[in-house]
């Protein structure tokens, strides 16, 4: 039987708090460090590996983390989730994003349908539509092919799909699967939509409106912006737009759209990249087969999430080390540092995924927590970040755990030898050097040049960023966030914290304000 208990009531956590601290500078020095790098590595799906040699753990601490995983019933809770229990207690909903890419357990039925079959049906409908667009069977009014796809959404309807598109754009061009250029409109700032529309040929563009409810203010505002641009170009907007929405939304059966593809309330926006939300734009941009490969990579990594042994479950191990760093060592934030330019927007996606999921101060039952939960997430690609905020990471007063991601080979298979090494070798040399520099530091009598070290990091290493490895990478972080939410006893699948500002904004626009809100509205000339 599953029980939901606060972290500070668990015996394993109390013991973990008393565990001897690991001196990472000593552990990562010399032959000890070499052995750790070889030993402290856990295989992931699709040839990836999670290496945690530079984390403040040893075999004894790993035993303590295993006891915490067992007492917190992490695998049992994951099993309950993918078998359709109501895990999202705030909204009284199941959590089914794993079903969009595979069946981990029993059949899940809701709304009178098998949900795995429903997600597969939507995926097939999107694939059929995309293939017809690519073949020129669905065209603009002049009978010409669409060449650009534009996604209109915000939050999870933008950040995840945009990050995934950018991650595979160059790979697709190199591998002859690039079908259509994709653009994204998200911000209600009119400059966002205007800039995208200014840079495309609207006559050859198809627009995807993504709104589960069909009432999202920013998204509908941007839709009106786009429709106005199409009208001004003498075009029929209904021949250029499709919708991704729920079956019950006002968009579902509207004549304003060429087609509608469905999502449901069981998949939160930040977990929707493997649903129709990501499926429509990625299938149009790269072809349905590439999207299928992306889903397969995620499904393979999901299966590892069912392992009870944390050394065989990379997402759970990553999550537990993160809990130790947050709740025992007291580290306030985590930097995500992909050494791959293709992952330039991946940290932004993880920022929403992690902070919107676990940025909670009450438990699943609404009771105030006496311990900290989700960390602040930030990051940029290397090596750019090295010339930006790494100063604070190396010598600042806060110790910030680091999560590196790196690949042995680039996507374009294009490089040059300069000073005896390729650009890719230089990139990989930098990430290897940073891991050791952060861990071991450097002694110097000049305090300004002294590096204390002891700064923990992990790295996910792969051969190349492609659809399968991207899917596995996405699944890893989604499951990491889920497991941490289980440990902290929070509901990782609602986001009440984003609602208050929306409500107040509507009051401002309706001129129903007083006090500070009225003065601020006047200052902004609303």
From TrEMBL:
Superkingdom assignment = Bacteria
Enzyme nomenclature, EC number = 5.3.1.9
For this chain, one GO molecular function annotation is: glucose-6-phosphate isomerase activity
UniProt keywords, alphabetically: Cytoplasm, Gluconeogenesis, Glycolysis, Isomerase
Pathway per its UniProt entry is: Carbohydrate degradation; glycolysis; D-glyceraldehyde 3-phosphate and glycerone phosphate from D-glucose: step 2/4; Carbohydrate biosynthesis; gluconeogenesis
Q: Which reaction does it catalyse?
A: alpha-D-glucose 6-phosphate = beta-D-fructose 6-phosphate
* Active-site annotation: 356 (proton donor), 387, 502
InterPro entries in the cross-refs: G6P_Isomerase, G6P_Isomerase_C, Phosphoglucose_isomerase_CS, SIS_dom_sf, SIS_PGI_1, SIS_PGI_2
Subcellular localization: Cytoplasm
Q: Main localization of the protein?
A: cytoplasm
Give the first-level EC class, as a single word.
isomerase
| Pfam families assigned | PGI (PF00342)
PANTHER family assigned:
GLUCOSE-6-PHOSPHATE ISOMERASE
The text of the family note is: Belongs to the GPI family.
Q: What does this protein do?
A: Catalyzes the reversible isomerization of glucose-6-phosphate to fructose-6-phosphate.
Name of the protein this chain belongs to = Glucose-6-phosphate isomerase
Q: Which organism is it from?
A: Faecalicatena fissicatena
